[in-house]
Design brief:
Number of strands of chain B: 0
Shape of chain A: globular
Number of helices of chain A: 9
Structural class of chain A: alpha+beta
Largest interface: A-B, 54 and 83 residues
Number of strands of chain A: 10
Strand content of chain A: 15-25%
Shape of chain B: globular
CATH class of the largest domain in chain B: Mainly Alpha
Distance between the termini of chain B: 39 Å
CATH superfamily of the largest domain in chain B: RNA polymerase sigma factor, region 2, helix turn helix motif
Radius of gyration of chain A: 19 Å
Helix content of chain B: over 70%
Structural class of chain B: mainly alpha
Low-confidence stretches of chain B: 1-33, 135-152
Number of helices of chain B: 10
Oligomer: heterodimer
Mean pLDDT of chain B: 78
Largest sheet of chain A: 5 strands, mixed
């Protein structure tokens, strides 16, 4: 394991990292059980500090909180067991419609296909999935100019990309995404002219909400490919989905 | 600059009461009472995930002083701290099903949510308001500390202070600036005039020592 990654364990447990460091470290965490365990144990320590900082909130806050939660539906648990059909990734691969390195114009042209969509206005603030405590996503999800698009990837899998030009970041949410084939990962890309620029790897797990790595200002869209573990510098397979930011971006 | 001694001292709450030097005393296992409380919070979270508003109200009553205290400590502004507390509980309600007792305690899970909300808030507000708050804070450290003292009379608070006292000064300052100050490790390095890269080591070492002294997370 990379020692410099490991040294970030404490800072990560205390939220003393910036967004880029957090994103990078979470990718490391996805593959490092030792670090996950240490983060959990150090978060017990940080939580213990708050035994010494108690301040009772105003009484009316209790009413506000309880009134608010009464209007919100709790999320279902994350499903962790893959059913057999999911192990075969080809179901998703079937929706591949795009060769890498095509121009954005072409992506728009296939916008009606299942595998590519154009982001549209209309994202409400109160998306039910805005509540993932581990993702640096709130700024994007709550941005006034947020655009979003969702794609069904077959077998109940679904991916949604939200982009805010003002924030300059994008967020992807996956629901019930089958795990990639053994020895591979889902890699995210910015589509920039004809180029694919890596935007990081999806953490393992069927339901994820993560910010893409790096600034997404002025890029044309986002793509997802299946790559060998560790990711690739350029895509080695065709995207399973693309999201076009449309002319406004 | 905000890195002067006064600021650092006031941020981490200053010695309130004589710190007990020599931490070994702080190493003790959690009392059975807090063990039961922890299990109980986990159960309340599970019931909340099924939509049990009564269980959530109980959870709120059992934890709101710690949640709000952390929000106040990090964001400082009382109105914003209330918003952070409210947002954190809403997120807790929504995501209660994601709590996994095998991966940590309920209170740790809850405080992680609050802390993240608070840190997001102060970082979004960024430079200008941060400067104002720091100036404001620097000029009234005594009042802040006396408030804190009044709120900290419990056994638990004593236990934490004893454990914190077992850290080296640099570890304690790094941990406190990072967690209660809401600063990144790079900012902590600047505040403590440490080389970049050293602060993250101090934070980690400090948290490990604190964890062991508190007997948590084993």
């Amino acid at each position: 394991m990379n020692e410099s990654s490991h040294r970030l364990v404490g800072a990560y447990a205390a939220d003393a990292v910036d967004d880029a460091e957090r994103h990078e470290f979470e990718q490391h965490l996805a593959e490092c059980a030792d670090c996950r365990e240490e983060v959990a144990s150090l978060q017990e320590a940080t939580a213990a500090i708050t035994e010494a900082t108690s301040v009772a909130p105003p009484a009316e806050l209790r009413d506000r909180v309880l009134a608010q939660i009464a209007t919100v539906r709790p999320l279902p648990p994350e499903t962790v067991t893959a059913h057999p059909a999911d192990a075969d990734h080809t179901g998703s691969a079937d929706v591949v419609a795009l060769a890498p390195r095509r121009r954005r114009r072409l992506l728009v042209a296939v916008g009606s296909a299942a595998a590519a969509v154009v982001l549209a206005v209309g994202l409400g603030v109160a998306q039910p999935w805005a509540g993932d405590p581990d993702s640096p996503v709130d700024q994007v999800l709550q941005a006034d100019d947020a655009l979003s698009a969702s794609l069904d990837l077959g077998d109940g899998a679904r991916a949604t990309v939200v982009h805010s030009e003002a924030v300059g970041r994008s967020v992807i949410e996956t629901e019930d995404m089958p795990p990639p084939p053994d020895g591979s990962v889902y890699q995210l890309w910015y589509l920039d002219g004809g180029d694919y620029v890596s935007a990081g790897l999806m953490p393992a797990g069927r339901d994820q909400t993560v910010a893409l790595q790096g600034e997404s200002r002025d890029v044309d869209g986002v793509g997802i490919t299946v790559e060998p573990s560790g990711g690739s510098e350029t895509p080695t397979s065709e995207p399973i989905a693309t999201f076009d930011f449309g002319p406004a971006a | 600059m905000i890195g002067d001694d006064q600021t650092v001292r006031s941020i981490f709450g200053a010695p309130s009461g004589p710190p007990t030097p020599g931490g070994p005393d702080g190493r003790r296992s959690p009392s059975s009472r807090s063990g039961e409380a922890t299990a109980h919070l986990g159960e309340l979270l599970q019931r909340s995930s099924r939509g049990d508003e009564g269980a959530f109200a109980e959870l709120y009553d059992a934890t709101s002083a710690r949640v709000h205290g952390l929000a106040v400590r990090v964001v400082r502004d009382p109105a914003q701290a209330e918003e952070v507390t409210q947002e954190a509980y809403l997120e807790t309600w929504r995501t209660a099903s994601r709590f996994d007792p095998a991966r940590g305690s309920a209170i740790s899970w809850l405080m992680t949510i609050v802390h993240r909300k608070a840190v997001d808030r102060v970082r979004a507000a960024e430079a200008s308001s941060r400067r104002d708050e720091t100036y404001h804070h620097r000029n009234r450290p005594v009042e802040h500390d006396s408030t804190a003292e009044a709120a900290h009379s419990s056994m638990e608070a004593h236990r934490v202070r004893t454990a914190l006292a077992s850290l080296t000064t640099v570890q304690r300052e790094a941990v406190t600036l990072a967690y209660l100050g809401g600063y990144t490790h790079t900012e902590v390095a600047g505040l403590l005039q440490l080389p970049v890269g050293t602060a993250k080591t101090r934070i980690r070492d400090g948290l490990i020592r604190l964890r062991d002294a508190m007997g948590v997370g084993q």
